[in-house]
Design the sequence.
């Protein structure tokens, strides 16, 4: 348990330093940078997967609590931008696979599953079955999420003037006890049910669906309290930084450099899509950026909550992205391999 205790201590110091320096998102970016620096310095860090996953249920409840009848009615107007999600994934694959395979020298399975903007666990699982380098995949996807999560807050505040200091919710004392109990029940039951049926992203989507049902039935009128969202940010940030634990100089020179180059490709594609969506009036710029930035679903949900973006719009696009990647990756990989 020493690496786990060390990670908690390092992440806590990161939060304090970010608060002291008045830097944005101290509960998220503080743990990310502190744990990243500690990992690169060779400090042994660890986490508790069950605890990390349980913190993600808070985000599922937060999104589900926003899905009122009026919000659900707006879903039909999202189809033009939703149709762009598979197109962006195809372009990422078309550019990312040759980049990793020909320029970086990776084998095809590692190149393919490294390029796919899906969930870390899903891409590692598919990649391992296909014979990819699991450690390389882990570093590629951790770096993708890290770069997106660190870059977006500065873009949101610099371009749209988003206030990153806003609390992500009301204090816990302002929420009725019955609603707090319902939120906890939706988080636990939704997660367990979704996991049992094999749903991807069970820790977020299960609580989201069950909370939405309770909200539509009139049982909930509030999102989770600010303290719960801060806790979720803390664990998400800590888990991102800890993924670099044990990294070697060879991996820094090869995998980390390759990952950063790929992030430039992703950022370029994201800018093109966001600009096209904004210029054609399909969606506001901030919502388009949060929806098409290929970061982690949990991390983008946190940012959307903090800046007050259209949560339903953002989450719908990320769910579709993960869905398309998970369903399409194995099939596309077999087709491309048979042609090669």
Sequence:
């Amino acid at each position: 348990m020493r690496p786990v205790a060390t990670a908690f201590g390092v992440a806590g110091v990161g939060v304090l330093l970010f608060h002291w320096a008045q830097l944005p998102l101290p509960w998220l970016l503080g743990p990310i940078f502190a744990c990243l620096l500690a990992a690169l310095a060779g400090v042994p860090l660890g986490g508790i997967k069950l605890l990390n996953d349980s913190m993600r249920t808070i985000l599922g409840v937060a999104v589900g609590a926003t899905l009122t009848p009026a919000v659900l009615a707006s879903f039909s107007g999202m189809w033009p931008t939703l149709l762009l999600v598979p197109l962006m994934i195809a372009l990422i694959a078309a550019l990312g696979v040759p980049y990793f395979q020909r320029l970086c020298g990776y084998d095809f399975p590692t190149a393919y599953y490294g390029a796919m903007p899906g969930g870390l666990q899903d891409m590692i699982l598919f990649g391992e079955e296909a014979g990819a380098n699991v450690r390389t995949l882990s570093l590629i996807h951790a770096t993708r999420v890290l770069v997106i999560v660190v870059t977006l807050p500065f873009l949101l505040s610099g371009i749209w003037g988003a206030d990153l200091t806003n609390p992500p919710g009301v204090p816990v004392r302002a929420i009725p006890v019955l609603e707090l109990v319902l939120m906890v029940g939706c988080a636990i039951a939704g997660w367990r049910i979704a996991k049992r049926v094999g749903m991807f992203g069970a820790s977020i989507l299960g609580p989201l669906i069950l909370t939405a049902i309770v909200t539509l039935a009139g049982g909930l009128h509030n999102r989770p309290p600010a303290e719960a969202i801060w806790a979720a940010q803390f664990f998400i940030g800590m888990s991102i930084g800890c993924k670099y634990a044990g990294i070697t100089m060879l991996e820094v020179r090869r995998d980390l450099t390759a990952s950063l180059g790929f992030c430039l490709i992703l950022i370029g594609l994201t800018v093109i899509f966001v600009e096209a969506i904004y210029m054609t009036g399909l969606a506001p710029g901030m919502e388009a950026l949060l929806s098409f930035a290929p970061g982690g679903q949990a991390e983008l949900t946190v940012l959307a909550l903090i800046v007050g973006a259209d949560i339903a719009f953002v989450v719908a696009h990320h769910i579709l992205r993960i869905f398309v990647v998970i369903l399409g990756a194995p099939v596309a990989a077999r087709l491309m391999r048979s042609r090669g």
Summary: The chain is about 75% helix and 0% strand.
